[in-house]
Every structure is written in structure tokens, then in C-alpha cells.
Amino acid sequence: MEQLQKDRANLVLSTASYHLKLAYTALARITYLIDEPWHSTSTIYDQYCKIIAKNVKPLTYRRISELLTELENTGLTVSHTASKGRQGYGTQYKLTLSPEIVGNACFPDFWKKLEESKKQHELNIEYESSLDLLRPRSGSSFFKSTDRLVKSLRRQADDEWKDFVDID
Asked: The whole model's pTM is what?
């Protein structure tokens, strides 16, 4: 079944436009990086703008919304409309395939770099967690200043990751 899904995705994406592949990859990217399945059109558009080549003019928000509808019509995504309270209603999209399949089908070199970045981030988190276990707890000023430094470095790493992922 999984092989059939890969083949169907490859068949659809082999004839897809550059921007359709980018929109699909943008949805896969944010799904892969933050491990949440549903994403709004605006989040996908922000990801699309982040990954588009610098020398290529991005499509409008409305056109990306139309491309996402095309992806839904092919069965590569599903959507639902959700209320955002005072901000009105918005459409959210979810992949029907794993993000890894999508990324490798659309832009394999880009996807490989993305996977490496996520693995490096996860290793950094594990390393910082292991340092917490080894650090002695004491009231001395040395340990307090060390704690402040570690917290500052962790906050900086978190901010860099958020910038990389491009979420608010």
C-alpha cells in the first residue's frame, strides 16, 4: 500500500509545476519539523516563501491557496475548515503521505539537508539534557552564573530553531 502511495505521488508530482511542488514541500517541511499534522494556509504560504529560490518571484497567497486545493483534489492532502473566532474561518491542510516521502519526491537534496538539520537539533537537545543531569545543584555563585549561561545558550538555540522553522 505504501509503495502504491509513493508511486501515485511520484506520478502526480512528475508533471507538477515548480510552485505546486514547493507548496507541497512547504506543507511537508512544517509537518516534519514541528510534528503537527494540520496547518493553516497562511502557515503553508509562509513556509513556501521561506523555501522558494531567491531569484524566483513567489506566487500570491491566493494562488498558493488554489494550488493547495489542487493537491487536495489529487488526494495528496486533506483539508477542513476551522473557526478562528473573531478572525473568521480558515482552511487547514494535512498530508496524506509521510513528509519524508513528499520531500524526497519533490526536492531530494533539499530534503536531505532538512533531515540533517532536524537530527542536529535533536542531538543538541539530548546533549543539553544530559548536561542538566551531570551539573551539581548548589547555592554557590559559580553554579548560579553557570546556570544563567546555560539558560542563555539554550534560549539562543531555541530562537535559532524557531527562526529556521519560521513559526511564531
From this structure: 0.81
